[in-house]
Fold each of these.
Amino acid sequence: MGDIINQINKLPQKVKFLVIFVVVVATLVIYWFLFYIPNNEVLSKLVRETQELQSKKRESAAIAANRDKLEEEVSLMNEKLKHALTLLPNETDIRGILRQLSILANKIGVDLVFFKPGAIASKGLFSEIPIDLKLSGSFNEIAVYFDRIGKLSRIINIRDISMSNPKKNENVLKVDVSCQAVTFMSAGGM
């Protein structure tokens, strides 16, 4: 090593500067390619990841700030769903319908003579459940009965009404009525 230093000392001043310059430039080039470029790429990647994480953090903070409002909206939507399922349930529940129609008929004074569920007909998003009914009562009682059916929590439509066999009984005209009550359920039921 001492020989190398002696030989460098014997060199002219310009060559010494040139050797030092070449060593410095070579060191910088090696540093550039071995350390700076790879570390710069890692640094750029980390900066991008940091920005993405900060963005996600802001989104999460915004959601957290609105959490109570969102929970309230979910609760409201669940209540609306419960109400919608009473109007358009996802099961047939023929016994429940018969019970409702029978109780209603007894309250009003109409005789529910016949109750026969028909075949379920799919209509896309919902299905129809037809029920053949035969009733007996005064015209006024029958009209009130149909009105009250329209006010039940479950949707029930009355169609194909035919009246026959009018009989006068104690100043009241009684009629026999044949009709079809149609209720609905969501297509997912059965």
Amino acid sequence: MLERIPPQSSDIERCVLGAMVIDPDSIGIAIEMLSDVDFYKPEHAMIYNALVRLYGNDVPVDQLTLIEQLKRDGNIEHIGGELTISGLYRETASSANIVQHARILKDKTLKRKLISVANTVMGRAYEDKSEAEELLMELESMTSQAWSNRQESYTSVSAKVHDVVNRLEDINERPNRLIGINTGISMLNGVTGGWQSGRLTVLAGKTGGGKTALALEFASQSARNGIPVAIFSLEAPAEEVTTRLVQSNAPFDMMKIYNQKLTADDWSVINDGAAKVHDYHIYVNDQSGLSITELIAKAKRLKRERNIGLVIVDYLQLVEGIGYNREQEVASVSRGLKNMAMNMQLPVIAISQFSRAADQREEPRLSHLRESGAIEQDADTVIMLYNRHETKGEGEFHDYGEDVYNEFVRELIVKKNRGGKSGDRILLYWKPEFTRIGELGYDMQKYLDR
């Protein structure tokens, strides 16, 4: 049986290299569209890399400079000697078709990648050590990656100006002037413009401080507006997440059921909250030990099948990343979430824990984010929940009165806001028995009466 040769074209590869050696402008075009992996023959990849080095060092390209570069690289003999370079000059009449030839090479590279992906998944399927669904997600992730690498890396500004103006006109006509999804908190909308597509928001705070409750309020608000939500809950099972949603929409102290028999009025409140949640298009994945690759694959499937418009991850540090140490793992997760937001064109909210340094009774800082370097860099917006009552610090909201900083009030501090204003402080009420949190109005007693 004859060995099957992967898709490739030695003639097209030589045409591209020939165009690069006779026309300096073709080198720049080739570098934008190709890399050395697009050349199937190793000797052609060596010549391409030598041309790229000359171009990068601003050295004029001709037969002699290319031969000298290949000698410095130790590759002149590997490519067949100086006669190979002379042949490129003799064979190439024009560089006119460099773009079309480069596209042909990219197409063949993509086919080779798809063959490799298929072989990898087929081998794992034969091993029979993984679930079929896991293999399907891996296949989807790898094929999506292969396709994304093929896309153009830039967009003409002139081609986007019309779209931008239309978008601004659309925003101007909206009653609430929102750019993105309504957060449910008017002051936060004013700072961020809502949850915007392509942006990663990190919601940080101490353990038990109300982060998940606030994230679920964001999810409920989106669902109420008809926008499906995906929640990746790596710490709590789906039933607990659903219970908290019912609780916050009732509201009802679920602990009562353990201490007394509920009345008809109690059940009426619970059923009302359950009815509301029943109509929400919220999808919870509670798989623990989820890797960033698996999470992205699952989110893409939900986008395709359920048209989700918001992703919430609870919480970031529990997602398994890639790297040799913890810092690298977290960096791969935060970068993966940011890329997912951009590629899927939807907002992503990731809950993050504070590091132990934040246990000190002081206002939180960006450096308090656990493994903060990569998270702080990748996030477009960082908002932090803060209980000023614990520090007995002086208040910033004097209009609310001296009792504003009690145990049932939280500050939501906008610590980072890429492209917008940061430093804003928003007061929230916190009802832990109802796992309910929301924007605080001037009528303090309405929220704090117990």
